[in-house]
Write a structure and sequence with these properties.
UDP N-Acetylglucosamine Acyltransferase, domain 1; Trimer_LpxA-like_sf; O-acyltransferase activity; six-stranded mixed β-sheet; Hexapep; alpha/beta; Hexapeptide_acetyltransf; 150 residues
Length: 150
């Protein structure tokens, strides 16, 4: 049976992506129990795919920039398919550390940490952890450069 909290989370995370003001999007995601730091920008049409539980499986650090159209996949399963018994169901976490920048349309898969100050290029599919101050791009995402801070 679905609890009140699960219904609330589902409603909030379905409304938040269409809010025209960043502050409202952040407020709704926090109300849906996602951990979000200070001075974060979340672009419109962020999609979060996760199991509707009270567990906090998405953590976004401070000063993170998430461009429009990003997809965070913390949970993946074949649902009612006949192959369900033959494939691995994944329910994991996604952590985006402080000062990271996620480009438009990027997809981040379960059990991935985006390191502090890392950059994920637009359209990248991130299947494994990204080291701090690293720039990744492509499908699957691979290191293409480093963020150089004087």
């Amino acid at each position: 049976m679905i609890s009140y909290r699960k219904i609330k989370k589902k409603i909030l995370k379905s409304i938040a992506p269409s809010m025209p003001i960043n502050h409202l999007r952040i407020k709704l995601y926090k109300a849906a129990s996602y951990m979000i730091g200070d001075e974060v920008y979340i672009g419109e049409k962020l999609t979060i795919v996760d199991k509707l539980s009270d567990q906090n499986n998405i953590t976004i650090g401070s000063r993170v920039a998430i461009s429009p159209g990003v997809i965070l996949v913390a949970s993946s399963e074949p649902n009612f398919s006949k192959i369900k018994q033959y494939v691995k169901t994944v329910h994991g976490t996604i952590q985006i550390k402080d000062d990271a920048w996620i480009g438009a349309g990027a997809i981040i898969l379960p059990n991935v940490t985006i390191g502090e100050g890392a950059v994920v290029g637009a359209g990248a599919v991130v299947t494994k952890d990204v080291d701090p101050y690293t720039i990744v791009a492509g499908v699957p995402a691979r290191k293409i450069n480093e963020v150089r801070i004087p």
